[in-house]
Specification:
By secondary structure, the protein is mainly β. The protein contains two helices and 39 strands. Strand 31 and strand 32 form a beta hairpin. The longest helix is centred in the middle third of the chain and has 7 residues.
């Protein structure tokens, strides 16, 4: 029976031998028993009229979906295939952060706190003298602000069920200095709130009395190293700390990258660059993603449902989760006056949908995109394996285990000792027989399976080897 190597979890922090994980990969999604392809960036909007700073999407009470994007000085709303400026002349020191409070999308960036009316598609400074802030969240019937009024360790909340009531002591509005734990890096909302500081995580619970909220530390040793690393899905919160990637369920903080990807991540990304990080949840999958922007950028993704990591090499500058904006038939007619037959996309295409949850990215041209294009070029690299214990192995062929039929190749690194320098690597492409003929000889063999951009495949599970025993021990 020919030996097989099944693709395990991506765990580049482990040694390159004697584990069932992968030492490297690019542009694949993890699955329970292998990996799936990732589509290329596919623009669904024209370019934003300015350099993208942050974005959000919400659904109003009347069912209307709004796609909002911010630049350093303006807020835009996407509708009918075009971007419309709804606020200008703004200033701030941070990326925009948003929260939905009824039919308002409240936006903060360290400057004037803004409110986007989701029903009228208009924007204006939020009334009631709200504080400036760098983060914002909705906690039950209150708006919670982080770094309120420019104070790094101060959180403030609005009055009960009124975003425009912000005088402390009036209608339950108030504030709380965070005397320990350092700067407030972000606030997260829901049934209860979470304040993530530089060196602490605190749960914020409504008390139902004159104190309004109770602040209970969850972790006194761990906090966020990057404001942009904080992402939330349901009751789960994810962030990057000095010790690596973490998950918080509102009761405890647990590591998710320890001895798996943390060391590799910090080796690739100096801490001085972590202020560029952005994070988002893929609402269609159990995936949280952290993007280090660039051309290409690098995205680290974690599927918490199956507890597996992956990594993408992608030319993106931003990302966020939300919903696409509605577009009417009248708007389509205005965009394509030549008639339906001149529309270059199906009417079922994601770019026309409204209120449909999507994982949205921003390309180098400031276009909002989905990962729905042709399959990206991808690779999967195994650790060094001994196909025959303590014997050199002469390989004559390798076959991928998956549904690929073309556009795939194998690169082998064969060594007698793990510490040896890489010899000439052997490369072969897939034949009509499903085999990739090779001539490779060694005790330890590392395999790198590569997929061409646009190659048709839906899953890859491992490799089957066709060896003949070598003569040397």
């Amino acid at each position: 029976m020919n030996p097989k190597v099944i693709f395990g979890p991506y765990e580049p922090d482990k040694p390159p031998h004697l584990h069932e994980g992968l030492t490297d990969l690019a542009n694949v999604y993890p699955s329970s028993n292998g990996y799936r392809p990732v589509g290329a960036l596919n623009p669904i909007t024209p370019a934003i009229p300015g350099r993208f700073n942050s974005g959000a999407a919400y659904v109003a009470s009347d069912g209307t979906a709004s796609l909002i994007a911010g630049t350093a000085s303006s807020l835009y709303r996407y509708s009918g295939g075009v971007w419309t400026e709804i606020a200008s002349g703004l200033s701030g020191t941070e990326a925009w952060a948003f929260t939905q409070f009824g039919d308002l999308a409240i936006a903060v960036n360290g400057g004037t706190t803004m409110a986007v009316d989701l029903l009228t598609a208009s924007a204006a400074p939020l009334g009631g003298s709200p504080p400036t802030a760098t983060s914002v969240a909705t906690v039950r019937d209150y708006v919670l602000y982080g770094q309120a009024g420019g104070e790094q360790n101060l959180v403030q909340w609005s009055g009960f069920n009124d975003a425009t009531s912000n005088d402390p002591g009036v209608n339950q509005a108030g504030f709380q200095p965070m005397l320990e734990g350092g700067a407030v890096m972000g606030v997260v909302g829901g049934e209860y709130g979470i304040v993530i500081q530089r060196r602490r995580v605190v749960r914020v619970s409504a008390t139902g009395d004159e104190f309004v909220f109770q602040f209970d530390p969850i972790s006194d040793e761990i906090g966020a190293i990057s404001e942009g690393s904080i992402a939330k899905s349901g009751r789960m919160i994810f962030f990057l700390s000095d010790k690596g990637f973490m998950r918080c369920d509102g009761n405890e903080v647990v590591p998710i990258g320890l001895e798996r990807v943390d060391r590799t991540f910090f080796a690739m990304h100096p801490r001085s660059t972590l202020n560029q990080m952005v994070s988002a949840i893929d609402p269609r999958q159990n995936i949280v993603a952290w993007l280090m922007p660039g051309n290409p950028g690098r995205m680290w993704i974690y599927n918490w449902g199956i507890d597996r990591w992956a990594k993408l090499e992608i030319a993106a500058k931003g990302m966020f989760s939300g919903f696409t904006a509605n577009i009417t038939l009248e708007a389509l007619d205005a965009l394509y006056p030549g008639g339906l037959e001149t529309i270059p996309y199906s009417l079922d295409d994601e770019r026309w949908a409204g209120g449909d949850p999507l994982f949205l990215l921003v390309d180098q041209q400031d276009q909002i995109c989905t990962l729905s294009g042709p399959n990206m070029a991808a690779s999967i690299t195994t650790p060094f394996v001994e196909l025959i214990d303590r014997r050199r192995t002469r390989l004559r062929a390798v076959a991928p285990i998956g549904d690929m039929t073309s556009g795939v190749s194998i690169i082998l690194d064969s060594r007698q000792r793990l510490g040896d320098r890489a010899s000439e690597k052997k490369r072969s492409v897939m034949q009509a027989s499903g085999l990739m003929p090779v001539r490779s000889n060694g005790l330890f063999i590392e395999s790198r399976l590569e997929f061409d951009a646009g190659a048709q495949w839906t899953f890859a599970q491992g490799l089957e080897f066709f060896p003949a025993m070598g003569g040397a021990r």
